[in-house]
Amino acid sequence: MDRIDTVRLAAFSRSHADPGALPGCMDIVFIENFTGQTIIGIDASELDVPQPVRLNLAIGVPSIRACTTDQIADTINYAAVREAVLALFATHRVQLLEALAETVARLLIDDFGAHWVRVSLAKPAKFDDVDAVGVQIERRRDDLGASHTGVVSYASLGKGLVPN
């Protein structure tokens, strides 16, 4: 599902009696061991030179329609997620992995319509004597409030503007 299709997913979410509640069944779209380059860190050696970060994502949505329709428009398009994450890696201004993981979680919830996400972000080359250091967070749509700063907020842009 790309950013445009989140409007349809948001409409599905609003059709439930309790829009804040997660559905009983979640389907998971995932990306494993994605390695990108970004400037991240607080040490002087990390402030100017991109370093590798490894990302694992689990993106939960209620009952993916693509299971029956076989249409990419009915699911989360992991190619679109990958491109959005690459763009984020190139442009973010945070220093800590925790803040970057939170930004990724918000991106997936706000722009891709995820109801639940698990973001694992690691620096595999930080120290010579460990494989990786990092953080793993989980967020639910209702944990982040009703920010919906992505395309979903445009669904009602013209609401109330038509005269009676």
TrEMBL record:
Key words of the record: Folate biosynthesis, Lyase
Record's GO cellular component terms: cytoplasm
Record-annotated Dihydroneopterin aldolase/epimerase domain positions: 29-139
Enzymatic class: lyase
EC number from the UniProt entry: 4.1.2.25
GO molecular function, a single term: dihydroneopterin aldolase activity
Catalytic activity: 7,8-dihydroneopterin = 6-hydroxymethyl-7,8-dihydropterin + glycolaldehyde
Biochemical pathway: Cofactor biosynthesis; tetrahydrofolate biosynthesis; 2-amino-4-hydroxy-6-hydroxymethyl-7,8-dihydropteridine diphosphate from 7,8-dihydroneopterin triphosphate: step 3/4
Example GO biological process: folic acid biosynthetic process
Family designation: Belongs to the DHNA family.
NCBIfam families the record matches: folB_dom
Name of the protein in question: dihydroneopterin aldolase
Classification of source organism: Bacteria, Pseudomonadati, Pseudomonadota, Betaproteobacteria, Burkholderiales
